[in-house]
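Researcher: I'm preparing a figure for a lab meeting and need a structural model of a single chain. I don't have an experimental structure, so a prediction will have to do for now. The sequence is pasted below. Please return the structure as tokens so I can convert it later.
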Amino acid sequence: MFLLLFVAERAGARRHPGIVSGLFLAGYAVARMSGELFRQPDAQLGYLVFGTTMGQLLSVPLLIAGIVIVWWARRQAPVAAAR
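Model: Understood. Here is the structure written out token by token.
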């Protein structure tokens, strides 16, 4: 995830405020979802819809929010770099 953020920074992501934040949210959601594959589900909940865990379901809105923020930031006009 941090490698992705580093590459985005080198590609000029700061010219579009929000891209780094959106990538972080989406990357965290993907990391959390993949980590949940190796965990035992909560004893009181078990597996939920489509065999997912609560952690995976809670990560879906975070992933969507990250994608929406990146999409919105890309549509904004670039900001001049302050030096």
